[in-house]
Amino acid sequence: MIKLEHIFKWYNIGGTRSFVIKDINLEIEQGDFISIMGPSGSGKSTLLNIIGLLDEPSEGHYYFMGEDVLALKPKKRITLFQSHIGYVFQSYHLIDELTVYENIETPLIYKNLSGKERKAIVGDMLDRFGIVGKKDLFPAQLSGGQQQIVGIARALAASPKLLLADEPTGNLNSKQGEEIMALFKQLNEEGMTIIQVTHSEKNAEYGKRVINLLDGQVK
Ligand SMILES: Nc1ncnc2c1ncn2[C@@H]1O[C@H](COP(=O)(O)OP(=O)(O)OP(=O)(O)O)[C@@H](O)[C@H]1O
Ligand SMILES: [Mg+2]
């Protein structure tokens, strides 16, 4: 499903290259459940953004579902993202001007679904995550944990083939965190490929394998 070959990412700072990702080679099969771990600043979010087609490496090759990603036109890349990827962002990235309901609905707009079908899916998500009572509120009216839950519901609404989750339980209490991990495990058993970033050994254990990053390299 995913093949990364000699991926580098650097930023030019004051005329010198500052490396964030250094020569990462990785193959991820459909149905895998991977936990990426590593200290703050080791490049976890950057790597996830590259895998999620939201950031471009400075060098290397990336194949996603058989497509040579870096050779694709931006429009095709966006379509590929919208069709197959659900993304839970570390800092939620909810759309401030949209209600909880509308935020969860956004990935469904790109699918060929009727208004009735969209309504049923959003209703199911609101129900499943216990946020029916929050559906007409805006992100600014929610707690951090509630925003995180909405971010997870949005990422899952369109039943993506690949779920990318950056610290998805970072702002949840331990019971909520365990529920989300149990849900991820169930979704993975049903066929969803999952890559999560986590600082928690316990959460990492829900996955099938762990990738440890240190200074932008796989240890
Ligand atoms: N636009 C940028 N310009 C320069 N450096 C950047 C830029 N974006 C990220 N970096 C650097 O890349 C490094 C890796 O950042 P990244 O967000 O991937 O780390 P992380 O492993 O996700 O950390 P955390 O656990 O704190 O979320 C950091 O040192 C950061 O300063
Ligand atoms: Mg990060």
From TrEMBL:
**InterPro entries from the xrefs?**
AAA+_ATPase (IPR003593), ABC_transporter-like_ATP-bd (IPR003439), ABC_transpr_LolD-like (IPR015854), MacB-like_ATP-bd (IPR017911), P-loop_NTPase (IPR027417)
Keywords from the named record:
ATP-binding, Nucleotide-binding, Transport
Enumerate the spans annotated as ABC transporter domain. Answer: 2-219
CDD domains membership: ABC_MJ0796_LolCDE_FtsE
A GO MF annotation of the entry reads:
ATP binding
> What protein is this chain from?
ABC transporter ATP-binding protein
